[in-house]
From TrEMBL:
<dbReference type="InterPro" id="IPR050266">
    <property type="entry name" value="AB_hydrolase_sf"/>
</dbReference>
<protein>
    <submittedName>
        <fullName>Alpha/beta hydrolase</fullName>
    </submittedName>
</protein>
<feature type="domain" description="AB hydrolase-1">
    <location>
        <begin position="54"/>
        <end position="286"/>
    </location>
</feature>
<dbReference type="InterPro" id="IPR000073">
    <property type="entry name" value="AB_hydrolase_1"/>
</dbReference>
<keyword id="KW-0378">Hydrolase</keyword>
<dbReference type="InterPro" id="IPR000639">
    <property type="entry name" value="Epox_hydrolase-like"/>
</dbReference>
<dbReference type="InterPro" id="IPR029058">
    <property type="entry name" value="AB_hydrolase_fold"/>
</dbReference>
<dbReference type="GO" id="GO:0016787">
    <property type="term" value="F:hydrolase activity"/>
</dbReference>
<dbReference type="Pfam" id="PF12697">
    <property type="entry name" value="Abhydrolase_6"/>
</dbReference>
Amino acid sequence: MMNELYPGPTLAAPALPDWVQQLAQQARRVSTSCGDGDLVWHVWGQPREGVPPLVLFHGGSGSWTHFVRNIEALVGAGRELWVPDLPGFGDSAVSPLGGDADAMVEPLYEGLRSLLGPRPCDLLGFSFGGMTAGLLLAAHPELASRLVLVGAPAMGVVPQRQFELKAWRHLLTPEAQADIHRYNLAALMLHDTTLIEGLALQVHAANVRRDRLPRRRLAHTDILARSLPSVSCPVWAIYGEHDALYKSWITQLASAFEASTPDFRGLTLVPEAGHWVQFERPEAFHSAVLAALG
């Protein structure tokens, strides 16, 4: 859920590893309408009779690469994955309706209806994407048969912001920008700071430079908790036990979900993991997701 768009130079991000580029090339790439541009979807795996498509929404200042360590395992478990770059991030155009999660609801609804028809999907949203998923299903509950929220903000249990990020776009050298990216990854995304170098830094640097939504505010409200009463499908939640969005307040999450969600099936706290739980502890994340999705 990064939000670091500031005026100034944006230098080239480090190239992603060859295997990540190959993974991207293995996807079927399709587009739906998003204002004057396109909403870009990446599709891995094949449809299976009786198994809904699994749609993944990434976090703020991200792209499909927020799930870079999960695609192969989920496809290997027999799931067909549909992963958009959310409006205003990655390769997708900005929504004509605004620059926060509520502006993404209708482009995503229209895209899912266009691509999947009347079939309900299984929907998983990470961080800002989890908040977006909640808003989408509150408005269109028929879209999904199951919802998994991962590290989602806006549950109304945190009295004040638990982290601060640093600006980086004004810095004039790749080295200076990378230092701030390392700081921000440690402040918000990763509990295990030894994971920052390498893939995490490369993915993050590539993603944040394509964030065109500088004034997102809904993540610091209780809008997800207020949306969940209208979500009729079963809901699961997965968080890292050291999620920087919540810190000590994470102990209140289960009761907040139970109070707001008509069909809440449980909260999994992944040990030794922070906010970007699916990157930091992929095996535990996959186990929790596959248990939820049955």
